[in-house]
């Protein structure tokens, strides 16, 4: 087992990637880490895959149960804060890639919507009301109209109410 204070690989710059790095540094399988964390194996898998994220309360309990250092706690809290921005960016990227690759609508708006999480859905609903859009139906059409990185970043800032990023 590797010391908790050893540094993690720089490439693990997502919440789930950071958790995976910690687990790997400890030399544990997903099932073992999940038991130590007090969550199901499926939950831990989802966290590492960035498909679901813990609430702030769950993160605090996780940090306490696994006796993470203050540095790891701060890093996980920071990366957890980046998740909404990353999900919106991924939504734009996947939509644009699908359109370019297939030249048609290949993404189900309902499935994309389900992956966003409650907090982000709330922010998107607030934003869509100002734009008179119906969600999730109109979301992917709107996103496909964003042609440049600057437009994507501006839209994400608008939805998150954040001019400086997370």
List keywords for this structure.
166 residues; mainly alpha; 434 Repressor (Amino-terminal Domain); elongated; disordered N terminus
Overview of the structural elements:
The chain has 166 residues and is mainly α. It folds into two domains: 15-68, lambda repressor-like DNA-binding domains (434 Repressor (Amino-terminal Domain), Orthogonal Bundle); 84-160, no CATH class. It is 65% helix and 0% strand. It has nine helices and no strands. It has helices spanning 15-25, 30-37, 41-48, 56-65, 70-102, 109-114, 118-131, 139-144, 149-160. The radius of gyration is 18 Å and the shape is elongated. Mean pLDDT is 82; it is low at 1-11 and 99-105.
Low-confidence stretches: 1-11, 99-105
Largest sheet: none
Q: What is the domain total for the residues?
A: 2
Mean pLDDT: 82
Terminal Cα span: 33 Å
Count of strand segments: 0
Proportion of residues in β-strands: under 5%
What's the helical proportion of residues? Answer: 55-70%
> What is the 3D shape?
elongated
């Amino acid at each position: 087992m590797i010391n908790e204070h050893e540094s993690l690989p720089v490439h693990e710059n997502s919440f789930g990637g950071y958790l995976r790095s910690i687990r790997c540094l400890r030399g544990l399988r997903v099932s073992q880490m999940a038991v130590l964390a007090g969550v199901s194996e499926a939950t831990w898998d989802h966290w590492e895959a960035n498909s679901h994220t813990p609430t702030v309360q769950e993160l605090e309990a996780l940090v306490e149960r696994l006796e993470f250092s203050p540095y790891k706690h701060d890093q996980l809290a920071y990366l957890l804060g980046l998740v909404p921005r990353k999900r919106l960016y991924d939504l734009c990227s996947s939509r644009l890639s699908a359109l370019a690759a297939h030249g048609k609508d290949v993404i189900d708006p309902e499935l994309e919507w389900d992956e966003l999480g409650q907090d982000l859905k709330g922010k998107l609903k607030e934003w869509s009301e100002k734009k008179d859009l119906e969600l999730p139906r109109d979301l992917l059409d709107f996103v496909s109209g964003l042609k440049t990185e600057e437009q994507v970043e501006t839209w994400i800032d608008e939805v998150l109410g954040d001019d400086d990023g997370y």
